[in-house]
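Hi team, as promised in this morning's meeting, here are the two structures we talked about. I've kept the exact order from the run log so nobody has to guess. The first one is mostly here for context; it's the second one we should focus on when we meet again. Sequence first, then the predicted structure tokens.
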Amino acid sequence: MSERSERIRPKLLAGVLVVIVVATYVEFVWLGSPTVYDVALWLLVVPLLLSFAVSGVEDHRLYRPLLSAAIAAIGVLQYLDGEWRILAAAFVLSGLFGLFGELRDRGGSGT
């Protein structure tokens, strides 16, 4: 087997795909027509969920900054959608703190 196929965890991938399929059905079919913010949020969340099924992805140097930025973006989209404002603020703040912490740890110009 190639190195790439050995990095994918099949059981976890199957579980994540089940969660994605069920959540997609609930979000876009059962709850009615989605807003633009729902679609944008889904485009952020699905790759994050799929990344859990790949071994070693968290070791990549861009993983943590992109994860923190995605968490902040999820909060912004939730806020713009008009739902869960306190939770949206928590997402934005935690994403920004994570991003600034990562920049500081790398010796960047963060806080």
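And here is the second protein, the one for discussion:
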Amino acid sequence: MVAPLYRRTGPNCRNVRLFSYWSRMTMDNGFKAAKRALIAALESGNYLHAARGDITIKNLLAMGAVSARAVIEVIRSCSGAHHSCTAHHMAPEVIVHVLRRHGWYIKFYFIEPDTWFLSVHQ
């Protein structure tokens, strides 16, 4: 078994547990890198939505109730103070990012080369 690594990924992302055999698949992101990658994914249309039971309420982007352009504007207005992250509850090697700004809640993660949205709602 591979020993877990503990890597600090930014001031809001302390001691997120990663496994060395996942390091090629997960993106080691601080806020600025995550923000750039998220905006690039939205601009290119290259993103996915995680399946969930309450997707009609919790992921307005997936439902088409909000545009990618509108989500980009919220993301651009975010600073590191609006960002937090944790390990994914089912895959602790994956860093889940959360942005909270202007009443919006945007939750996402990266598994290269993909960007996955869990929640986009007010």
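Starting points for discussion:
The chain has one domain: 4-121.
The first helix runs from residue 31 to 44.
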